[in-house]
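Saturday, quiet lab. Running sequence design on the structure tokens for the scaffold JK sent over.
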């Protein structure tokens, strides 16, 4: 068995394992559908890339890189994209939490204003 076939098999198995793991997390409600759909797409892309492994050699030669370096560049690009996406999500959640805290403070102030002060004499 050639090295390219072995690499393709390992990539395929990793993509399939990621797909199964994602579906299990979704089924257990540990992952929302929004994120699960993204991870399913990533899993399918990894599985599809296992079929494209023979094309890595020509791309690597085009850029004077090794095949491993090409995979590393793609992986780092993916990690950076995921970090950016998660940063955007966290920023939106932070903004929503701040808005809720402000609304809660305004409601508390309104309730305190409407509730007569109890005398403790």
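Result came back. Writing it out in full:
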């Amino acid at each position: 068995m050639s090295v390219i076939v072995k690499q393709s098999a390992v990539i395929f198995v990793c993509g399939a394992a990621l797909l199964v793991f994602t579906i299990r997390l979704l089924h257990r409600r540990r992952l929302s559908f929004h994120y699960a759909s993204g991870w399913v797409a990533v899993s399918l892309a990894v599985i599809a890339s296992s079929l494209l492994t023979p094309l890595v050699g020509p791309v690597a030669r085009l850029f004077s890189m090794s095949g491993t370096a090409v995979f590393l560049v793609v992986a780092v690009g993916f990690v950076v994209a995921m970090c950016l996406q998660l940063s955007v999500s966290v920023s939106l959640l932070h903004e929503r939490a701040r808005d809720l805290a402000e609304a809660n403070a305004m409601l508390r102030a309104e309730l305190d204003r409407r509730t007569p002060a109890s005398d403790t004499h």
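Notes for JK: The chain has four helices and no strands. The chain has two domains: 1-51, 68-114. Ask whether to fix the surface positions before the next round.
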